[in-house]
Design a protein that fits this description.
The protein has 10 helices and 2 strands, in the order H-H-H-E-E-H-H-H-H-H-H-H. The chain is an all-alpha fold. The protein starts with a helix and ends in a 5-residue tail after the last helix.
């Protein structure tokens, strides 16, 4: 089914500047509001980091990181991002919020590149479609995960990996099954085993 769809209609791509502007525009409101989100992360953030702290520094033992679970979910990759945030920005929540926005922007770009467009469609049609897509992604409904950056880092990273798997599957639709499988298994492992499953 993916092969038929991909073959019948070109995908939008991201070369025109109008598409980039359309994708970024809905994110600008969040970027303007970001300085007011506050520095102090929510409690969940510290509970995860506490599992990989050894004395006054982060553990150097890989098993400690691989066992990080705030609940039933293993969150290795988010924990690494959190640790980086502590080292680079003293644990500032706003840095995590910025990370969440970047994850959403990359997700929007990947989804936009998969949009089927009619042959010869005007650039304004493509830009308008990208704008609507981006508006749905940067919806106010995502406020919790953007304002509380620790939440967005977990959820949006997991979503991004799932979107990347779909993107790869579409890109390799005409390739042999084994060529598609390697990338999908890798993305699936990262998404399911090392971040919170979507």
């Amino acid at each position: 089914m993916i092969r038929a769809d991909a073959g019948s209609m070109p995908r939008s791509g991201l070369r025109p500047a109008s598409l980039v502007v359309a994708l970024v525009l809905p994110a600008l409101l969040w970027a303007v509001l970001l300085p007011g989100f506050g520095r102090l992360p929510a409690n969940d953030y510290w509970g995860i980091l506490a599992q990989v702290v050894d004395g006054e520094r982060f553990s150097a033992e890989a098993p400690d990181w691989l066992r990080v679970k705030p609940n039933e979910h293993t969150v290795v990759l988010p924990a690494v991002i959190y640790a980086g945030n502590v080292s680079l920005a003293a644990g500032d929540n706003r840095m995590l919020s910025a990370t969440a926005l970047v994850l959403l922007l990359v997700s929007a770009a990947l989804l936009c590149s998969l949009l089927p467009i009619p042959p010869g469609a005007h650039r304004a049609v493509r830009a308008g479609t990208a704008l609507v897509l981006s508006a749905f992604i940067f919806t106010p409904a995502a406020a919790h995960s953007i304002v509380l950056g620790f939440s967005g880092t977990i959820c949006f990273l997991s979503n991004l990996l799932a979107i990347a798997a779909v993107h790869r599957l579409a890109a390799l639709a005409d390739r042999p099954a084994d060529a598609r499988l390697a990338g999908l298994v890798g993305l699936g492992f990262l998404g399911h085993c090392l971040t919170r499953p979507t």
